[in-house]
Write a structure and sequence with these properties.
alpha/beta; about 750 residues; single chain
């Protein structure tokens, strides 16, 4: 703090000086505790790093402690700053916290400490003695303890950031009491829907599974057990059951825990969010919040007249991004990229993960390379911060050891798999087939089974489009509705297509898609043709056939290995998982759904073995407090891409016009532009697709970072005919030299 009448001519940055001051006070306080000398120094140095970086990104712990030794200008700046302190105000601050902490601290001692530059030796010596040698205390600690210390640091960092921003951004919202969700929300919802009095066999099983999961929780829950699972077949109501389980845990623990529901794909968040909104019957964002990178940034508060008003943009963004709601519906990316981050905007979520019940839907989508990281992190976070995890899937991966590290809430889940015989898997992978032969096989099936809805799932956009065009030439459009789905088609169109597929119609439906249709997309067909993929993806694909046991015949799932797709499939999924799938299916030509569970369990045993022998760079970085390296974590691999905005309707044109208006407004600062764009981004990105840069349209110039394509004038690049769905295959790749249509890179999957 500078004196009020001091003319500011020198450095104004306060973070470093504040960090050293906080460290010294922490040392004084920690010396009064029962902690050992190492823990005292470690935690004091933690306060140094979190205060030092409260305006930026964390560097590795080593770099933070060594930073001052060779920075003579920075040390001189510190010496200058302490001479212009506002001493009276600073002494008042010291008296305030000293009384609270029960210690005394002298400002003059701190000034002398800075003048002596003693801090440089202390920081460096601590790291060299404790971290830099294998005989140091840190190096002798078990990995589990080092993991704990990492998260202690991150929660300290997040708590400081959250408190600092809360003080600046919020006013009366800070003091509002958290809402009570009530105890009978799900039961009331189920009675309203008639779920408590099921008639059909599948609804009876849903009801039974729901009851058994809650009973299993009541019998098996322990405050010391932080990780649970719900394993049930596709279509058995896991969304509602898991929500009821989470609310029951919340009630058991005294209502203070918030619920965080995480879903792998933004494409299926909306449908689940509507279920939760129906259950909660409340529009207030303090009760229910949706957060992902495309979600509308509007935090709504309830007024006295029971209407809802959005808060201003700044407050809304802060409350949304820090998950200040009783129920948060978000993505795996948001959760994991926050847990493994060195960026202040992400780490601020962590304090609101303390005392949280976290549901992870479709947990099998977590890459096996991260299983060890997830295993050790979740155990640490649960143990340290009283979090509870519920992992949900029809194909439960072995991330945690059953009955040792994770407790299944439906112990006899195998009975539900035995009850279901909606589909059978027909393995045709013994001999790879050409793409042309595969297409002819599907076409022949369509001709001989004219009443059956068919879904074809292929692993690349190139070959999925090729297959669709082959089938389209042979289809009878008077009798068939043909649909193509991939990320070459705008999200707006994909939503429309999925809605049409789900709507009963007189025509037979033929759908060709990439993998985007597998997890969580609520459709049901008679027959699935699936290109070889990891077994969990195959079982998920099978879940799109006869999903509700509503078909008059058993659904068929045909599995093929396609020669032209082998290399791309290996790049997408990894050769290891494909080989393990081949191993499990080697002696199987046909298998009924009631026996799928044995396949799944055998497959994940092999995958777990693989997960235990691969390198773990993020675990190693955590164990050495390498915050910057941990912060490089990304659940989704970032790929270079080009963005195309597609003008397919009036809404798209309006969104583009608003976007251009915002970014051409020179009166707006950068952050103001971002805030303004946040208000329209949900609609805007409904019309954006991402392609490989080498496939960008060469004869269209970029406008405001996007290639703008209008199908009416650029039909060679994009086909869109709202009344002729079978003609719509999205973005076309143009060979600039030959001027003929080709297709995207094999490695660009969904």
């Amino acid at each position: 703090m500078l004196s009020p009448d001091h003319e500011v001519t020198g450095p104004k940055s306060h973070a470093l000086l504040s960090a050293l001051f906080t460290r010294q006070v922490a040392r004084e306080y920690l010396a009064t505790t029962n902690l050992g000398k190492f823990e005292q120094e470690l935690l004091a140095n933690y306060t140094f790093t979190v205060v030092k970086r409260h305006h930026g990104k964390l560097l590795d712990f080593e770099d933070e402690l060594y930073a001052l030794g060779n920075q003579e200008e920075k040390r001189a700046e510190l010496a200058q700053q302490i001479e212009v302190f506002a001493e009276e105000e600073t002494e008042e601050i010291i008296r305030s916290f000293a009384q609270t902490l029960g210690l005394s601290y002298c400002l003059e001692d701190f000034k002398e400490y800075i003048r002596s530059e003693q801090y440089t030796d202390e920081l460096e010596d601590f790291y060299e003695d404790e971290f830099g040698t294998r005989y140091g205390t840190w190096q002798q600690l078990p990995d589990e303890v080092r993991m704990d210390y990492f998260f202690v640091h991150q929660f300290m960092f997040g708590s400081l950031l959250l408190a600092d921003k809360t003080e600046v951004i919020l006013d009366e919202e800070r003091h509002k009491q958290r809402p009570n969700l009530g105890n009978d929300l799900v039961e009331t919802f189920r009675k309203k829907k008639g779920f408590d009095q099921p008639v059909s066999r599948i609804n009876q099983l849903k009801n039974q599974a729901y009851t058994q999961a809650l009973e299993g929780l009541r019998q098996r829950f322990s405050p010391d057990q932080h990780i649970y699972s719900i394993t049930l077949p596709t279509g058995l109501g896991k969304t509602i059951t898991s929500f009821a389980v989470a609310l029951e845990i919340k009630q058991m623990l005294g209502q203070q825990h918030r619920l965080v529901v995480t879903i792998p794909f933004t494409s299926i968040i909306d449908q689940n969010f509507e279920v939760y909104r129906d259950i909660l019957n409340n529009e207030s964002s303090r009760v229910l919040l949706k957060h992902h990178h495309l979600a509308e940034p509007a935090y709504k508060e309830i007024e006295d007249d029971e209407s809802y008003r959005p808060l201003d943009v700044n407050k809304s963004q802060f409350l949304i991004e820090t998950w200040q709601s009783e129920v948060v519906v978000t993505t795996f990316v948001q959760l994991l990229n926050s847990i493994y981050s060195n960026h202040k905007a992400l780490v601020m979520k962590l304090p609101n993960l303390a005392n949280a019940i976290i549901i992870l839907d479709e947990i099998q989508t977590i890459p096996y390379a991260y299983w060890q990281l997830i295993n050790r992190s979740f155990k640490a976070i649960g143990r340290l911060f009283n979090c509870y995890f519920v992992l949900m899937s029809a194909t439960q991966p072995l991330i945690f050891a059953p009955e040792e590290e994770i407790i299944e809430l439906v112990p006899d889940y195998a009975q539900y798999f035995r009850h279901f015989n909606r589909t059978r898997l027909i393995n045709r992978c013994q001999m790879p087939v050409s793409m042309d032969d595969f297409g002819q096989t599907v076409a022949q099936y369509l001709q001989t089974h004219p009443k059956r809805d068919v879904l074809v799932i292929l692993n690349t956009k190139k070959l999925s489009k090729q297959c669709f065009e082959q089938l389209r030439q042979l289809a009878n459009e008077a009798n068939d509705d043909l649909y193509y789905l991939s990320t070459l088609i705008t999200p707006y169109e994909r939503k429309q297509i999925i809605r049409k597929i789900k709507t009963p119609a007189h025509k037979r439906k033929v759908v060709v898609s990439t993998q985007l249709i597998e997890a969580g997309v609520d459709i049901s067909v008679d027959t699935v043709f699936r290109a070889l993929a990891p077994l969990d993806a195959i079982i998920q694909a099978a879940g799109r056939a006869n999903r509700y046991n509503e078909k008059t015949i058993q659904g068929e799932v045909y599995l093929y290995e396609i020669e032209e797709m082998r290399q791309a499939t290996s790049l997408i999924y990894g050769q290891e998982l494909l080989q393990k799938t081949r191993n499990v299916l080697r002696n199987i030509q046909q298998i009924e759904e009631c026996h799928y569970l044995s396949l799944i369990e055998a497959y994940f045993v092999e995958v777990r073995t693989q997960s235990e022998v691969i390198e773990q760079p993020y675990l190693e970085a955590i164990h050495m407090l390498q915050f910057e390296q941990v912060g490089a974590f990304s659940l989704i691999e970032e790929r270079e891409g080009a963005s195309v905005f597609v003008m397919i309707n009036d809404e798209a044109q309006e969104a583009w016009a608003k976007y251009a208006e915002i970014y051409n407004d020179d009166s707006l600062k950068k952050y103001e532009q971002k805030r303004a764009f946040a208000q329209i981004k949900t609609v805007f990105y409904d019309y954006v697709i991402n392609i490989h840069p080498q496939h960008a349209p060469e004869d269209i110039d970029k406008a405001l970072h996007f290639y703008v394509v209008d199908p009416a004038t650029h039909s060679e690049y994009y086909t869109y005919k709202p009344r002729q769905q079978a003609q719509n295959t999205g973005y076309q790749i143009i060979d600039a030299s030959a001027k003929k249509t080709t297709n995207p890179s094999l490695t660009q999957n969904y």
